[in-house]
Amino acid sequence: MTWDIALILSVDGVAGAAIYLLAGLGLVLVFSVTRVIFVPFGDIAVFSALTLAYLEAGRWPPTIALVAVLAAITAVKEVVAHLRHGRVAKVPAALGTWLGLPLLACVPAQLLAGQELPPLVDIALTLALVLPIVPLMARLVFHPIAHASTLVLLIASLVMHFLMSGLGLLFFGPEGFRTQPLMRGAVELAPGFLVSAQVLLMVGAAAVLAGLFFLAFERTLVGKALRATAVNRTGAQLVGIRPASTAALTYCAVSLLAGFVGILIAPSTTMYYDSGLIIGLKAFVAAIIGGLSSYPLTALGALAVGMLESFASFWDGALKDVIVFSLLIPALMIRSHFSHHSDDDVEEEEV
Amino acid sequence: MTALLAIEDLHVCYGKVEAVHGVSLHLDAGQIVSVIGPNGAGKSTLLSAAIGLLPSQGRILFDGQEIGRLGVEDRVERGLCLVPETRELFGEMSVLDNLQLGAYVRRESKADRRRQLELVYARFPRLAERRTQRAETLSGGERQMLALGRALMSRPRVLMLDEPSLGLAPLIVDEILAIVRGLREDGVSILLVEQNALAALESSDYGYVLESGEVAVEGRSDVLKSDERVFESYLGGV
Ligand SMILES: Nc1ncnc2c1ncn2[C@@H]1O[C@H](COP(=O)(O)OP(=O)(O)OP(=O)(O)O)[C@@H](O)[C@H]1O
Ligand SMILES: [Mg+2]
To answer: How many CB pairs under 8 A join A and B?
Structure first.
């Protein structure tokens, strides 16, 4: 291997790492706040990518129907629950939250789909459409079993993944899609060393998003409330933080992250209805390196996964995934070596 | 006037085992009421049920309204606040973060929150010194102060304290109890659970002696203090 090749592979690796970083942050966030290992993350990213592809092609994205149906089911369930407990006064708010808001996100896409639109508008419409998916599904699936064991939550999460990839096949068919790159051409980073502008955009966007994510967590009261819920659930309740609200907020954030992942990855990788699982699993490797709790370590893990994947595909394309997933073994060994016997252990055992 | 917090015929179970059998208790506005009793009497259980961490049968009235079916957060929002025996701090977060989160339910301006923070710092200068330190690295006494400070940040109407003097040096115990008495002047009503029965009775207006999940004796604190039976069974060792 020459330096040139190594450099090119590194660029690929960093580009991949950008994706796994966002996905890994999403997984760690969901797990630490709700104890759910969010397997369908990749599927949501696929929905985002394919929705964008449909909008670009001037087709009506079936995602609109998905959101509308999910919103209707969730709203009915919430209203029935309120009525059964005699809380009639809460019905309008429930309708507004679980039906009104998601439908509102659909309106612009419904009105504008099928027209020739600027790329940024397509992206905005896509994000708006993807945003309600996870909160709605989580309200339906995870909310009723919020106190169940991690294993039960994982099983529900797996079921959700199969459901989502099935729906993906139903909605978008078996063929793959690529979206238009936002930027064309290449930038010469060093003499003779060209990097495509799209890759730079991808890495830059991921870095900015991850930075915003850290800021929101460290600086805002709401971000602190999410952390507090992750650190001590009882303590959070005692200061009046509502687990249901923090969960909803978490799922919104994750939906957005998945939306961005789909949008960032789709110009460089052909996306199929079932591409999600492998993205999610590799991000999971990064998240495991972060112990499903540390954001900085997850970022490091994402970089390791991205790099390893890129170099492994050069050595042996067929074995690339095997090599990436075997990273789990040393990662877990090192973690178990350094982990002191604290609450972390209990969680890891439960996993 | 109706009591600010009224607990009536409260039963609390752990699984099939009942730990609190029909306890009734009243706390008027501006009062300090203490609950004393031997280990395992059900004092902590009573407080956990009152804040909603444990399900219970019976009635819990706050400001005349039934709150027994509400979730913990709703009760906290109405002005009930518990500092549990286990403190439940946010260990991996800083002292300042813990305090700020204490004011989470108060949807108030940044300036108001800052003012409240300064008040808490004034009460516990030690916390101000250690505002960037992680809560889990605080000493036992500092942790108690943080728990109390976090509770004060929410400016509760009823503050329930479970053994605020646990593990503290005698001098600090006096200090904490003085702070508790001072809170009453700020209009906070306090339900105080204490191992240190004599100190608790000295600080409170009214007292309940809990034994095996039932109220054994109740009465004005000064009367209880000089009550032969109470003295022998609960204060004898002090
Ligand atoms: N989680 C639990 N499961 C089963 N039983 C419990 C549980 N917590 C407490 N108990 C039992 O309930 C009874 C009352 O306990 P509680 O903690 O309320 O006592 P306490 O009066 O606060 O005692 P102490 O002064 O030691 O703090 C005890 O017999 C205890 O063993
Ligand atoms: Mg106790």
So the answer is: 66
Spans of all domains in chain B: 1-79+158-238, 89-155
* Architecture of the CATH domain B1-79+158-238: 3-Layer(aba) Sandwich (3.40)
What is the length of chain A? Answer: 351
Cβ–Cβ gap A228/B154 under 8 Å: no
Q: Is the CB of B167 under 6 A from ligand 1?
A: no
pLDDT band for A194, please (50, 70, 90 cuts). confident
Establish whether residue B45 lines the binding site of ligand 1, counting it when its CB lies within 6 angstroms of any ligand atom: yes
Q: Which residues contact B155 (CB under 8 A, 6 or more apart)?
A: B103, B106, B116, B188
Query: With contact defined as beta carbons under 8 Å apart, do B231 and B225 qualify?
Result: yes
Phi-psi region of A114 (alpha: psi -120 to 50; beta: other; left: phi over 0): left
Looking at residue B70, what DSSP letter applies?
S
**Long-range pairs for A198-204: beta carbons < 8 A, 24 or more residues apart:** A198/A267, A198/A268, A199/A11, A199/A15, A199/A268, A202/A15, A202/A18, A202/A19, A202/A264, A202/A265, A202/A268, A203/A14, A203/A15, A203/A18
Report the residue from A227, A234, A239 with minimal CB separation from B104.
Answer: A239
C-beta of residue B154 within 8 angstroms of C-beta of residue A239: yes
Say which residues have a Cβ less than 8 Å from residue A122's Cβ, sequence separation at least 6.
A52, A55, A56
Query: Which tens digit of pLDDT belongs to each residue from B20-67?
Result: 999 999 999 999 999 998 889 999 999 999 999 999 999 999 999 999
State if residue B204 touches ligand 1 by the CB under 6 angstroms criterion.
no
Which residue out of B104, B106, B132 would a mutagenesis test of the A interface target, given it has the greatest number of A Cβ atoms within 10 Å? B104
| Domain range annotation of chain A | 3-173+193-333
Q: Do B100 and A224 touch (CB under 8 A)?
A: yes
Write the residue in B73, B86, B100 that is nearest to A240 by C-beta. Answer: B73
What pLDDT digit, counting tens, does each position of A105-123 carry? 999 999 998 888 899 999 9
A235–B88 C-beta distance less than 8 A: yes
